[in-house]
Amino acid sequence: MAGSGTKFTERPRILCMVHLPPPVNGVTVMGEQVVHSARIRDRFRLSVLPLRSSASIADIGRLRPGKALRIATQALGLAWRCLLQRPALVYFTLTPNGKAFYRDLLYVGIMRLLGVRRLYHLHGKGISKSLNGPVSRVLYRLAFARSEVILLSPLLYDDASVVLKRSQCHFLANGIADPWSGNGKPSVPGNGVPRILFFSNLVVSKGLFVLLEALALLKENGVPFRASFAGAWESPAVEAEFNRIAAERGLDRLIEMCGPRYGDDKRHTFAAADIMAFPTHNDAYPVVVLEAMSHGLPVVSTYEGAIPDMIQDGVTGFLVPTQNPHLVADRLALLLNDADLRDRMGRAGRQRYLEGFTSTVFEANLTAIFEACCR
Predict the structure, then answer these.
(1) What domains does the chain contain, in order, with CATH numbers?
(2) What is the mean pLDDT of the chain?
(3) Which of 152, 158, 279, 372 is the most buried (most CB within 10 A)?
(4) 162-186 residue pLDDT tens
(5) For the whole model, what pTM was predicted?
(6) What are the backbone dihedrals phi and psi of residue 257, each rounded to the nearest 5 degrees, phi first?
(7) Dihedral (C-alpha) 78, 148, 39, 50: value to the nearest 10 degrees?
(8) What residues are paired with 19 via a beta bridge?
(9) pLDDT(62) > 80
(10) How many whole angstroms separate alpha carbon 34 and alpha carbon 363?
C-alpha cells in the first residue's frame, strides 16, 4: 500500500503490547522506539499496553508477589482494550522461551479467545530447546497457530521452524537512532593506551567472564590496554566473583567499572573507547553491536544468533566461536596493536550501520509489515 500511494480511509488501530523500560535492555529499547515513532504513529493509531513485570535486570526471571498482580492487571487491560477498541492488529513482543513464555500464554489465550489478529515480534530465540515434551509442543503450536511473526533475521528461522511455517514470518533487522546526528562525534581526550569497552548488563551469558579471561591473557602477553565495563550487575554473586577474579589476575588496575550509562554519559563512554568486545554466548540480535557500529568502533563478538548479519568478519570486526577466550584475546590483540586496522574497521562498521541499521530503515520496514498485516 505504501508503494502504491493507496491510503486507508481511517488509520488502523494497533494495540502494542510491548516491553518498555525499566529495565533497560535491547528488547525494551526497541519497544520504546516503536511506540514513539512519529512515522508509525502518522500511519496508525497506536494504543500502548506496556509490559513491565520486572523492575531491574536482577529481577528478571524471579518470582515475586508483585509480579502476579502486574500480570493479572496487564491481562485485564488486554481484554478490556480488545473489547473496547477492536484493534485491527495486536503487536506483541512475545517471549519465546523460559518461564516468561508460559506467562505470555495467558495473553495469547485472551487474544485467541477474542479473535484479534496477532503479530508477534520475537526478540529472542530458544524455541527448539524449549520443546522438551509433548505438552510443550502442543502449547507452542497453539501459541503460534494462525499468527504472523517477526523474526530478527533469516538466521533465526531454524530455531522456530518446528512451530512456524516460513509463510508466517516477516524478517526485520533491528535499527537504532544515529548517536552522532545533530551533534557529531563527542571529543574525548585519550591517554594513548587503547580502551576496550564491554557495554551491556553485566550478565554471565553475555560473555562477561570470557572477556575477563581474555583480558588476563592480554596482560600476560604484555599487550597494553585499558578496559571499561558499563552496565548493571546481574546479581551480587556475579559482581563478587568478577571482582575476585579481576583481583587475582591483577586486572583491577586496568579495568574501570562504569555502572549503567545513559544519554550523554553513554555517548561519551562509547566515544572514549577504541574497541567493542562482546563475546556473548546467548543472544539473538544484540542492539549493543549496532550501537558500537554506529559509534564507529570495530567489534569483537561471536557467531551467536544473528550477529553474523551485523558484523562482517575481517571487515567491520572479528567473529569467534562462543566460549573461547583465547581467540577473543587473539583478535583483540590484532586491534590493540594496529591503530590503522581499528580505524579502517570502525569506519566500515559505521558505514554498514548507516546503510542498513538506522532507526529510519527499521521504522520504514516495520511500517510496511504493519500495513501488510492490516490488509
Answers:
(1) 13-175+358-374 (3.40.50.2000), 195-356 (3.40.50.2000)
(2) 94
(3) 279
(4) 999 999 999 999 999 999 987 777 6
(5) 0.92
(6) -95, 115
(7) 30
(8) 51
(9) no
(10) 7
